[in-house]
Amino acid sequence: MQYEDNFTEYFENYEEDEPPEFYLSNAQIVSLVLHGIAFLLGVPGNAIVIWIMGFKWDKTVTSLWFLNLAIADLIFVLFLPLYIAYVALGFHWPFGSWLCKANSFIALFNMFASVFFLTAISLDRYVHLIHPAFSYKHRTLKNTLFLVLTIWILATVIGSPALYFRDTLTLPNNITICYNNFHPSDLDLIILRHHVLTWVRFICGYLFPLLTMIVCYSLLISQVKKSAILTSSRLFWTVLVVVFVFFVCWTPYHIFSILELSAHHNNYLHGLLRDAIPLSVGFAFINSCLNPILYVLLSKKLPSCFRVTFSELVKHTLWEVSQSGTVSEQVWNSISLQPYEAPGTEITPSERSLVPTEDA
């Protein structure tokens, strides 16, 4: 007996206990359009960011964070055509079991990597501005590369259950679906595994990062004596907007994923979830193409956008972000370092010039 419960998990938008439908609902069509937009805009947009940050400029701590955020998004959008084809074919998966596993894994991998990099950027902002002495000693390219590698490994580990549970099933009418094979027959084990993976994904990929970022920015706003210095920073607003958009895009997906846990015992939810899950997934995945667009919208050169190219607008904002050691942060660093001066000593102007800026 094959698993026949009706919950969608990540890409599942199909009721396995009913005959497959060969027409797409309005929600599925909208989801398909969102995925197409994410692919068409996400590939060139993230490629531009990677080219600028990875090959055109010297590496800084901040540029490493944004570079890896773009890499995570680009890896994901390159796999989107597989899912687009899956939906367009009426949820028939002709690509085999391994690509079923890989496609689902890449989606989860992208979600965790993106939110972990955004969390790291927020923590980096907090440490750099609130604990300058610690930042001066430990905020180095070598340590940042180590943290980047740790995030990639962590995202791989947390997303890896998809490589084990994701599977294909060919129905009697020769329709092949890509679904979560938690167990062939044990319903209790199926429900347990579904609950565990959903809550791990919610806590690690949403709740904990969200709370961490809220705490970081709350402390930044409350503890920075000259808030005008902070809020005038291009980097501050860029990060804040990117973080806000990420959670706006992913919140519906996590809400319906948790609601989906009740579908095992509540058949009335099936109709709602059949429409809500595709929309929430499409809305979440559109986030992978938005960051380059946000960089353009945040660019000071936007009013003259008709005279410059998209890549030049992106480059201008990224340059402001990566160079946001800025006079304002240098002033704040010089103020913040004063409590760390030993009694009877004084930091000379030449020594103060060695205080780390954003390019450290």
UniProtKB/TrEMBL annotation:
It is a multi-pass membrane protein. SUPFAM superfamilies: Family A G protein-coupled receptor-like. GO terms for biological process: inflammatory response; phospholipase C-activating G protein-coupled receptor signaling pathway; positive regulation of cytosolic calcium ion concentration. One of its GO terms (cellular component) is plasma membrane. It holds the Pfam family 7tm_1. One of its GO terms (molecular function) is complement receptor activity. Keywords: Cell membrane, Disulfide bond, G-protein coupled receptor, Glycoprotein, Membrane, Receptor, Transducer, Transmembrane, Transmembrane helix. Residues 45-295 form the G-protein coupled receptors family 1 profile domain. It is found in: Cell membrane. The chain crosses the membrane at residues 29-52, 64-84, 104-123, 144-164, 199-222, 234-256, 276-298. It comes from the Eukaryota. Belongs to the chemokine-like receptor (CMKLR) family. Belongs to the G-protein coupled receptor 1 family. This is Chemerin-like receptor 2.
